[in-house]
Fold SSD domain-containing protein.
Amino acid sequence: MNAEIHVATGERGLERLVSVCERLLFRHRLAVLMFFLGASLLLGYKALELRPDASFTRMIPTSHPFVANYLRFEEVLRPQSNVLRVLVENPQGDILSKEFLETLREVNDRIFYIPGVDRGKLKSLWTPNALWAEVTNEGLRSGKVIPDDYDGSPESLAQVRLNIQRANMVGSFVANDFQSAIIRVPLLERDPETGQPLDYGAFTQALESEVRDHFAAQGVSIRVIGFAQIIGDLLSAASDIALFFAITVALISAMLYLYCRCWRSTAVTVLTCLLTVLCQLGLLSLLGFGLDPYSILVPFLIFAIGISHAVQNINLVMSEMGRGATSLEASQRTFRVLFIPGSTALLADAVGFVTLLVIDIGVIQQLAITASLGVFVAIFTKMFLLPVLMSYVGVSPRGLRQQSKRDESSWSLWRGVAALVQPRFAWPLVGLGLVLLGLGYYGARDLKIGDLDAGAPEFRPESRYNRDNAYLLEHYSTSTDVFVVMFKTPQEQCSRFPAADLANRLERELLEVEGVESVQSLYRTMRFNIMARNEGNPKWAEFSRDRYVMGEARTGVPGELVDRDCSIAPISFYLSDHKAETLGRVVSAVTTFAEKHADGDFEILMAAGNAGIEAATNIVIKQSERQMLILVFLIIGAMVWLEFRSLRVAFALMAPLYLSTVLCEAVMAQIGLGVKIATLPVIALGVGIGVDYGIYLYSRLENFLARGLDFQSALFESLKTTGSSVAFTGLTLALGVATWVFSALKFQADMGLLLVLLFLWNMVGALLLMPALASLLLGRKGR
């Protein structure tokens, strides 16, 4: 009894709140419009200052132990992690010509002076750290690959070829066919001149204009592989993303006009949705944020949310005006009916975005913040601005006639749906839902974490970046997927026999793991040096217990293989690919070895290199995915319960969303799409947006039930109004994002496909499965 009194008191409190807001809003319409005009001008001006923003550290889970270890020893590990490989190819022949080597030197010099390059660790045939060594009768000799007395003569070119072979650079810095050479370009996270985070967009633009375009005009092919180039290509594709956004907006606007046949309400609705996006971007700029390549699609999602809510508003205004109300009266009644369910639905959308914050990857957390700001703006524009605008423009007579025709034409459809979800027919629908759920579980059993394709999965296989990556894999022996293990010892102990012997055993064991192709380390170099100092006899290519022999073998080792204190020795394993299974096998093998063999003096730490960081990312995503989904469903379910005060209603609304999520995962598994940074947010966003349908429909159903109608009649009346707008919204948004499958960016095409499926499945679930569950759980009267 007390609980019923408490609920009734709460409902009366909400009614009073809605009544107060209604009076304030519609009695001061001009003031409301002036407020939104001023806010729009201010935020629109700030939106002009918004700039693309990307950071290496925001793309990785910085609190994961692997990444924490990398950041701890970043100075020595940078050449194997945030690094570009610039391939300079001679299409006319091999690299050993005077003209080409001079061109290679010019490329090297131009890259050297681009801000953001770690110049001390830059390496190519022309840099001083490119050294060779050999054993002669007189002892050990060494020198630069391109010596100081190089003059471009045939003799000098022959000497360079010999030095390249002595330095063991064939397959790593020089192509196996000698037609191209690599410049390895480690990058600094902060621009040394400004102290600001490195602007990857500006960096890649400089690389494009000063290197790629400049030397292409001279007949030299330049290829670039690495994280920075991926980000740069994504940022440069912003114009394509904007084009698809414009196409989607135009398509949705046309569909909206065909639905309501009123240009005034269509224009007001689209303008309000675009204003929401503009204010969102302005707030981002005001708070000091930018748009990274993955958040650049969020404005469309905010536009889609706006359309979803605006269609409900238009539909009810049309319905009220069709009964003889003025545009002002119709807007007031619509506001009164939609304010609570609309606000609840928008808050549910926000919750879907906020739960992404549990994923400890900066780019996903920024996406969550970006989207949440958009929903925050949408609460004001959809709940307050749009009703006021509609009170002025209303719906044209043609639009009202269209509404009447649509009601008549859809009468039999909605009558059939209402009859279909009666308890005697609802059981087969629920049974079909359970069958689909079982098929979804079966299909999703092979869902993988991480990337499943070679190269950069953000782009299509025929993209320039993936063609460049394929060229490197075809013409070089070393892979672009590098997993770096940090072998830590006490100072000046890394070259002693106990450390070298343990590291050597680790290397041998890892080389037996499927997917590990080769290894590069201090210890491989030391064994070569020991052999070289013993007349090149292979039987001496073993470690010595004599510390002087081991110390001498460490002399002249490149700085990327050991730090100055001889306490960190990176061991780089080159992998066949960066698929989740390969990375998982490597991580498991290193972990098992470390547990068995590492002691207090020696530590085996993971991981750096692009493959090591991706392994950490996969681990974080795998740990966070279920946690995120559980939070999404629990929190949104709790909000639905607070709205309708019924666990049975909450279950009826949330079950179709869960079915859609499972089916979406099954489709991802079947088409070879892994759970990763680009796809993980889509599911949370789909749940947040999809719950809108159910909230609006059940809210109208509840209103008719409160008037004394039985469940089937109340559902029929709800479907005639809200059901039509739900069907239109689902189909229109699905059609709008379907255009994304033609995008040159594969990750945008993937997101488009997943959103199409979620929009459609959530729509069908709200119109069929939710009423079927409600009729079974609530009884014939729905109480």
